[in-house]
Amino acid sequence: MNDVADDPKAARPERHERRAASVSAPYGPLPLADYPEGRIPAVPGHRHPTGDGVAPTASAEDGLGPDGEPFGGEAVLAEDGGAPAHSRLAAPADARIAPTRREGAWAVRVYDPASAARQAFGG
Question: Considering the entire predicted model, what is its pTM?
Answer without folding.
Answer: 0.70
